[in-house]
Amino acid sequence: MRRIISGIFLLPLVLTSCATLNQDNSSRLDLIRERDELRCGVSGKIPGFSFLNSSGSYEGFDVDICRAFAAAILGDPEKVDYRPLTAAERFTAIKTGEIDLLSRNTTFTLSRDSIGGNGLSFSPVVFHDGQGLMVKKESEITKIEDLSNTSICVGSGTTTEQNINDAFESLSIPYTPIKYQDLNQVIAGYLQGRCAAMTSDRSQLAAARSGFSNPNDHLMLDTVLSKEPLAPASEGSDQKLADAMRWVIYALISAEEQGISKSNIDEKLQQAINNPKLKPLRRFLGIDGGLGEKVGLSNDFVILIIKSTGNYGEIYERHLGKNSNVPIQRGLNRLYKNGGLHISPPFN
Amino acid sequence: MRKKGRLFVQFLVLLILIFFVSIIINNLLINLSRIGLGFNFNWLLKPASFSLAEYSFSYNPSNSYAWALFIGWINSLKVIFTSLILSTIVGIIIAFFRTSKNFFIKIISSGYITLIRQTPLLLQLMFWYFVGFLGLKSDSLFPSQNLFNISNQGISIGSVSISSEFAALLFGLSIFTSAYIAEVIRGGIFAVSQGQWEAFRSLGISERKGILRIIIPQALPAIIPGLTSQYLNLAKNSTLAIAVGYSDIYAINDTVINQTGRAIECFLILLISFLILNLLISNTMEIINKLVINSLNKK
User: What's the predicted TM-score (pTM) here?
Assistant: First the structure.
């Protein structure tokens, strides 16, 4: 009995140490400037998106989003403290203020974006993905119906887990989910033959396959189980931070639309300075209009971003393009004018 | 009078303690609701909408989160209790091997203990699962026999079948804990004074009878408290199930946290589940301990 009472008394003490005080209602933008460093939550385990390179620093598509934001707000893309997070940790990390920004293959959903749900605020979608299934060619499985009564390896604590259940239930296909906490374990379980198939976002499957000893022995089924719009997220009640994030992403997309890249940014800037008639370009690059200030950034934030990461297309090509280690066809991630889904609202 | 005074001081200390604890809890609740994480358990009754590989009672994705967590707790209990029994049996055998006079048996058993105790449990579990069980072929090792099947999908004996995940966790936990239990038992046996050994030997009592009737009863009071803490460790170590894909309460909790975003409530449930479980284990062991001591005192 004595032990039960002391246990109950100690429990809140343990819990209190986890809670942090939120001093006032000021935006985290000021905090980031004061700290002179951006804390960015990433996965750290997905080649092409966020992965430790041979020199020990993080690299990838998601990492470049963090870098673009650091460039916009602090003027230096290197001032980022990366925090590797698991799928289960990521939202709590934002809510408790451990990180400023989450750039970790996170699917944009209603529950996550709303105050009644996880209470986050999502930026525009940076990568349109969909959940897929990968099987071994030798298994002769070619469609989802062939997976009846088999085991499927899946990562726990993700929308993946729910989607596979929805898809198989609606088709009345019985299956056994083998759940692992970590994508690397999902891959190991699949390669070792515990499961007939593994499921994850198609981009992650492609990234994983690029590391297999014989990538051609594995087949991605044509069925796409879900749409997975991946987007960065921040704390939902911080409107200023959300605004800044939204327009950093749009700046990357808009720069590609206008053909402004890392290599020609200086030239474009000169043109804009010399020619007062190029109104939209002058506004975009911060010569006129003072647009940056409206979202809590400096007026030249677009120049800072493009100089450090390049435009959206450049980021994509660097990490996921044909010549990268993890080639993924651009498909839905092309600009709207090339048949994709990316479009930026006007910088007016 | 003095006794009353002391009682008053104790009462005062208790009051102050309750006061501070309630301030802390209040503070916590206010701060949590300020960052939008206020306590709320309504979600427990909503449908879980994820499926599970293993369940002892009927389960489907339209059952509630609470039921899913309960299934996870039962899964945890299943692996904890089977591995508690298995590790005790193996531990006893190894302990007697270590006290044996046979040189080879002694070397083998002390090598076993050294190897198991010097490597991390997580590594061992991963080894048993990914190298041990998943390293097997996908079709049975004994295709001709229907009675006993072992493949990378699991083990089945007759109509009873267990998955590779459960088998690897059971195996890994039992082997790891057995090494510690063996050392606890050996320590208990050595704690019995050398004179007792000489005494029964000089009375002409056989070695086996002497150990069982004279040494073990005296060693038990030294063994049981150590055994209790090993059992508690075993229960807590079972949460490493998540590394080998077994759906224990911790793994299911992980999924629930992600779907509901209710990390604090989920961890509270987890803490309380384990508090109940471990209090059960330690109280049972305390009762056993008292019984042993009483029966010794009677003699």
Answer: 0.73
